[in-house]
Write a structure and sequence with these properties.
Elements: H1 2-29, E1 32-37, E2 40-41, E3 45-56, E4 59-63, E5 68-73, E6 80-81, E7 86-90, H2 93-121, H3 127-152, E8 155-157, E9 162-167, E10 174-175, E11 180-185, E12 190-196, H4 198-201, E13 207-214, E14 217-229, E15 239-245, E16 258-266, E17 272-276, E18 281-283, E19 286-292, E20 299-309, E21 314-319, E22 327-328, E23 341-344
Parallel strand pairs: 1-23
Antiparallel strand pairs: 1-22, 2-17, 3-12, 3-16, 4-11, 5-7, 5-10, 6-9, 7-8, 9-11, 12-15, 13-14, 13-16, 14-15, 17-21, 18-19, 19-20, 20-21
Length: about 350
């Protein structure tokens, strides 16, 4: 009886051993074949493109310094105007009446002051009376000049040559002092506005050069000079960067034109690599690639930051890689961490479809 039990135990152990061997063999046979590639170190400099717009560097809102009803608007949106040209006028009646009253008061005080001053010079009045009349004359003179200025300020003139881009008030509407009435853009000085993400703003010390391109002149690159970068992001979370354009009489640019700003960066050492875009997959919002372990042929994810993807399908990324790394080139979405793979080199150009 004991001999039979021992025989059964040995039999069970043999079955388990054979099954495990078969399972291991099955796993080896099930290793997934994948095409692999190696990252190529990027050139010492990196160029990134940003959708941008040309705008007037002098684009101001014009307003009256005094309140009142708008009597006349002499321009329309899109009109070209000269420096000093009359653009709009407020109803001046209240200011004319005010000035006339002040003028009469001024002339009376001035005449009395001249009389007292003459008497003072002859020793006929006291110093305190002299000081009082002089102070009164100074006060009324300042008031008279202020009311003269107020009447002049009912006329709105162009501070520089440009184009009327918008008009906010029409005739008979009442405007307050400092409230924008119209906006004036200068075409003499243009600038380019781009918006940079925070990760690029933090690398501003690595900026090397700037230029822009446009579909209007597809074969020409136009240099730019970085003027400043705003420290407060816009609604998109991007930071505004302002570039000065160099004058180029042979090319015609206008505010509102869309362009591409190219910024060349000095790259970090061994940080940027070129890889096929098909090697990239996403884990949530994080872009990653599969790196094949040379020891056991298992795959493990490596985070990457996508810098750009070219028209040819080649991606430039920043990642903790080396040129000797083996990366999975395609089929990346069906893999999982620790999976065993069978690396296959990229098919030659003459072996279309990897049939040979």
């Amino acid at each position: 009886m004991y001999r039979t039990d021992a025989f059964q135990l040995v039999f069970i152990l043999i079955v388990i051993f054979v099954s495990s061997c078969r399972e291991e063999t099955y796993r080896e046979e099930r290793s997934t074949p994948v095409q692999v590639t190696s990252p190529e170190a990027h050139e010492p400099y990196l160029t990134k493109s940003y959708p941008s717009i040309i705008q007037a560097s002098s684009d101001v809102n014009l307003s009256f310094r005094v309140p009142g009803p708008v009597m006349e608007v002499y321009v329309r949106e899109g009109d070209e105007v000269k420096e000093g040209q009359l653009l709009a006028r407020l109803d001046p009646r209240d200011y004319e009446t005010q000035l006339e009253a002040t003028k009469a008061e001024y002339e009376g005080i001035k005449a009395e002051a001249e009389r007292i001053i003459s008497l003072y010079e002859r020793g006929r009045v006291s110093t305190s009376e002299y000081d009082k009349v002089v102070t009164g004359l100074q006060q009324i003179t300042a008031k008279y000049r202020a009311h003269q200025d107020a009447l002049n300020d009912t006329r709105l003139k162009a501070p520089f040559k440009g184009q009327i881009s918008q008009i906010f008030f029409d005739r008979s509407e009442i405007t307050d002092a400092g409230m924008p009435v119209m906006s004036l853009s200068s075409h003499q000085e243009l600038e380019v506005l781009a918006h940079l993400p925070d990760r690029d703003l933090m690398r501003k010390d690595d900026f090397v050069s700037f230029l822009f391109t446009t579909r209007l002149y597809p074969d020409t690159e136009f240099p730019l000079v970085l003027r400043n970068i705003g420290k407060v992001p816009g609604l998109s979370g991007m930071y505004p960067a302002y570039f000065d354009m160099k004058r180029d009489p042979s090319h015609n640019f206008l505010p509102g034109m869309r362009v591409e700003v190219n910024i060349t960066y000095r790259r970090d050492t061994n940080a940027f690599f070129n890889i096929p875009s098909t090697a990239i997959f996403y884990d949530g919002e994080q872009a990653r690639v599969w790196r094949v372990s040379p020891d056991d042929q298992t795959v493990h994810p490596v985070p990457v930051e996508i810098i750009r993807i070219g028209n040819s399908g080649e991606a430039t990324v920043r990642a903790d890689l080396i040129q000797d790394d083996i990366l999975v080139r395609s089929g990346v979405h069906s893999l999982y961490e620790g999976q065993t793979v069978s690396p296959r080199e990229e098919p030659a150009d003459t072996n279309v479809g990897d049939l040979l």
